[in-house]
From TrEMBL, chain A:
Alphabetical list of Pfam families matching this protein: NIR_SIR (PF01077), NIR_SIR_ferr (PF03460)
Gene Ontology terms, MF aspect: 4 iron, 4 sulfur cluster binding; dissimilatory sulfite reductase (NADH) activity; heme binding; metal ion binding; sulfite reductase (ferredoxin) activity; sulfite reductase activity
Superkingdom of this protein's organism: Bacteria
GO biological process, one term: sulfate assimilation
Gene Ontology CC entries for this record: sulfite reductase complex (NADPH)
PROSITE patterns registered for this protein in UniProt: 4FE4S_FER_2 (PS51379)
Name of this chain's protein: Sulfite reductase, dissimilatory-type alpha subunit
UniProtKB/TrEMBL annotation, chain B:
Protein name from the UniProt record: Sulfite reductase, dissimilatory-type beta subunit
Coiled-coil ranges (or none): none
Species assigned in the record: Acetonema longum DSM 6540
GO BP field: sulfate assimilation
Keyword set, alphabetical order: 4Fe-4S, Iron, Iron-sulfur, Metal-binding, Oxidoreductase
Cofactor field: [4Fe-4S] cluster; siroheme
GO cellular component, as recorded: sulfite reductase complex (NADPH)
Length: 399, 353
């Protein structure tokens, strides 16, 4: 192999933060694809422009997605980056691994690919970064042998993902990992064979801290909540206060609805449950003293997406409270109703949030059979441009 | 014949015994030191998690190296976080200090928990994306080389601060809802190659891809025309049609956004808002971008109250004072002119001089 000259990228081996250039070089020591990736990246740094060609449709038998095709725009200069496809591999819920599982995956990828990964892609998948068209099928077959199936791409259900939930968190109102596993398994066909107007993402966060960023990064966000009173251990609250914790500055003044107060005389925390909007702040601030309530379920938010085309959206409340117990049939029924309606009415490359924006939330609710509720809006409309259905008004004034 | 539709590995076979036993029974957690979490269960069991910075883009050798560590101290169990850090899961307290010593000796950076600047959620950049206006990995490396004392807890901050990078306005990841976001943008309109377009692009799809209706069919050339006055260079037409090109190494660059969040704690989730419309692409160190981000962090950290995130701080002091305190110029680019823009105009006489 010729000498690898990458003066610009070499700069990024310096400094304290772990270096991706060092990682590419570790792979490049064994793999010509990783080596040409590095050389092409050096050219991009020098020329301030990317060197990947538009698109590329590749895949594996039986599936319509899971592989992102990529070709170098200068294969003469970078022959081993000529074909440099990404394989999306479905990650285990909560990103938990045994070292055996990781080593098995690395052995397969070293055999067929560049030896480079993203741990993980933003949607959650393990990203295997760079292989040839010829190697795709055998690689995916051997990944299957060690227990890894592909994730989603294209107009399909994308790989669901979640926060760590009940595996390691005291504020988990729902079993986010089990919901994610069950939904992923139930919708394998929708995930592997794109059949929808555009992508559809589901993310599950077990409480309103939303550690999976579900409301912003998924079309349907499942966010754990409780609807009774949060549990207060008054002795533990006193311990915080006695240890010098400024409960007024840190907690009481930050409650968005003034639902809690500290009675300095009685040395007790007072909660007006009907005013609490379960924002999590007081629990986050005093985790030893406050716990989530006992009547637990999820709020469902619809429509989260990035800017293209109509502007970025953070999901809106669709269902204020749904019980989430295996096998999650009520949830699956709702997913089916939403995706059926969207598949029928959605334009090409129209996310479900944009379709609702175009058709109207009221019509959407009627079509999928959900009641309109005040929890769905920040405020009622301020304009008088109200639609009425003919059956809602008396017949009058006909010729 | 290969197996199909069998799904991901089952997490129940990949979680350590202490989690199996205490699943759903965790009582509370503390952060005994930056980057180390201590979870205590109702059963009295304890789990320590040690979080390390990761470049996200890693090699097989990296995966094997952290696996070796997990084999030595964690019975072969580890996980990754939703911000792409790696976590070692320790149930035997006597192994905690040796693990930390070993990680430090091997050069891993421990941190990222509680009130800190954790890992930067980012995208493919010039490493793998055809739409990339900038490189994500390089900017992340530069910004975090500068800000790593905030990751390790060496420098304290009033609240958590989330940084995200997206290499184009598709904003894969978390840029529309992060405390500070860095987003690649174009500033010159796309060029249509008429000959190439015929037979290669769906014209209706290309027209429908434009948020401002700047594209119309051109029957003469059987191609499309772009009205430059209506085009704001989002490049979505180039995503659906390979005959339209927009890359411009001279004028492409990045924009910086502030004040977004996704958590519901205290205040509702917020979108990030434009702070700096344009900074040049200046690889490999992107000094203008790195300095701007560091400056924003420092001004916020010096002025925000305990527990106040970037967007909450700005809500309290007002945007007029945000621009004053940061010294950033407010320009015509900051005033929204897209859908529902009027909802962002100030319809009150409440403002500061």
């Amino acid at each position: 192999m010729d000498e690898l000259k990458t003066p610009l990228l070499d700069e990024l081996e310096k400094g304290e933060w772990p270096s991706f250039v060092k990682e590419i070089k570790r792979a490049a020591a064994k793999n010509p694809g990783a080596r040409d990736l590095l050389r092409q990246l050096e050219a991009s740094y020098r020329e301030k422009i990317g060197h990947w060609k538009h698109g590329g449709i590749v895949g594996v038998k039986g599936y319509g997605g899971g592989v992102v095709g990529r070709y170098s725009d200068d294969p003469e200069r970078f022959p081993h980056a000529k074909e440099f496809h990404t394989i999306r591999v479905n990650q285990p819920a909560g990103f938990f691994y045994t070292t055996k599982k990781l080593r098995d995956m690395a052995d397969v990828w070293d055999k067929y690919g560049s030896g480079l990964y993203n741990m993980h892609g933003s949607t959650g998948d393990i990203i295997l970064l760079g292989t040839t068209t010829e190697n795709l099928q055998p690689c995916v077959d051997e990944l299957a042998d060690v227990g890894f199936d592909l994730g989603g791409s294209g107009g399909a259900l994308r790989t669901p993902s979640c926060c760590v939930g009940q595996a390691r968190c005291a504020t988990a109102c729902i079993d986010s990992m089990e919901i994610t596993r069950e939904i992923t398994m139930h919708y394998q066909n929708e995930l592997h064979r794109p059949a929808w107007p555009y992508k559809f993402k589901i993310k599950v966060s077990a409480c309103p801290n939303d550690c999976a960023a579900a409301s912003a990064r998924s079309d349907l966000a499942v966010i754990g909540v409780w609807r009774d009173a949060l549990l207060i251990d008054q002795a533990a609250v006193r311990e915080y206060v006695n240890n010098g914790f400024n409960i007024f500055d840190r907690v009481i003044r930050k409650c968005p609805t003034a639902a809690i107060d500290w009675d300095s005389q009685k040395q007790e925390l007072e909660l007006r449950t009907e005013d609490c909007v379960h924002c999590m702040h007081c629990i986050n601030a005093m985790p030893k003293a406050l716990r989530i309530g006992k009547e637990r379920g999820a709020s469902l938010l619809i429509g989260g997406k990035a800017p293209v085309v109509k502007g970025a959206m953070i999901g809106w409340v669709l269902v204020p409270f749904m019980k989430m117990e295996p096998p999650f049939n009520e949830f699956k029924d709702l997913v089916d109703k939403i995706t059926d309606w969207w598949a029928e009415h959605g334009k090409n490359r129209e996310r479900v949030g944009e379709l609702i924006d175009r058709i109207g939330l009221s019509v959407f609710l009627k079509e999928i059979g959900l009641p309109p509720l005040p929890q769905m809006v920040h405020a009622p409309r301020s304009n008088p441009y109200i639609f009425w259905y003919p059956e809602e008004v008396e017949k009058h004034g006909e010729k | 014949m290969a197996r199909n539709d069998f799904g991901p590995p089952d997490y129940r076979e990949l979680i350590p015994p202490v989690i199996q036993k205490n699943y759903g029974q965790w009582k509370y957690h503390t952060i005994p030191r930056p980057g180390v979490l201590k979870h205590v269960s109702d059963t009295g069991d304890v789990l320590y998690s040690v979080r390390i910075a990761s470049p996200r883009l890693v090699s097989s050798e990296y995966i094997r190296s952290i696996s070796d560590i997990a084999d030595t101290y964690c019975d072969g169990y580890l996980r990754f976080t939703t911000r792409n850090n790696a976590e070692f899961l320790v149930s035997d307290e006597s192994k905690l200090e040796p693990l930390i010593k070993d990680l430090v000796a091997k050069g891993y950076m421990i941190g990222g928990g509680g009130h800190s600047i954790s890992n930067v959620v980012h995208t493919q950049g010039w490493i793998h994306c055809k739409s990339a206006v900038t490189d994500a990995s390089g900017i992340v490396k530069d910004v975090m080389d500068e800000l790593h004392p905030y990751f390790t807890g060496e420098i304290k901050v009033p609240a958590r601060l989330r940084i995200a990078v997206a290499c184009c306005v598709n904003m894969c990841g978390a840029c529309h809802c992060s405390d500070i976001s860095i987003v690649g943008i174009h500033r010159t309109p796309p060029r249509v190659n008429d000959e190439l377009l015929v037979g290669r692009c769906e014209i209706p799809t290309t027209i429908a891809a434009c948020p401002t209706g700047a594209i119309r069919p051109n029957p003469k050339t059987k191609s499309v025309e772009i009205n430059h006055e209506k085009c704001m260079m989002c490049a979505n037409c180039t995503v659906v049609c390979p005959a339209i090109k927009i890359m411009d190494p001279v004028n492409d660059g990045v924009s910086i956004w502030v004040g977004g969040k996704v958590s519901n704690a205290r205040t509702a989730p917020k979108f990030s808002r434009l702070a700096i419309p344009y900074l040049p692409n200046n690889p490999p160190r992107w000094p203008e971008v790195t300095n701007a981000v560091k400056h924003l962090v420092e001004v916020w950290a010096a002025s925000a109250r305990e527990g106040e995130r970037m967007g909450e701080w700005i809500d309290r002091i007002g945007w007029e004072r945000f621009f004053e305190k940061t010294g950033l110029p407010f320009t015509d680019k900051h005033i929204d002119d897209f859908t529902h823009a009027t909802t962002t105009f100030r319809s009150t006489t409440q403002f500061r001089f």
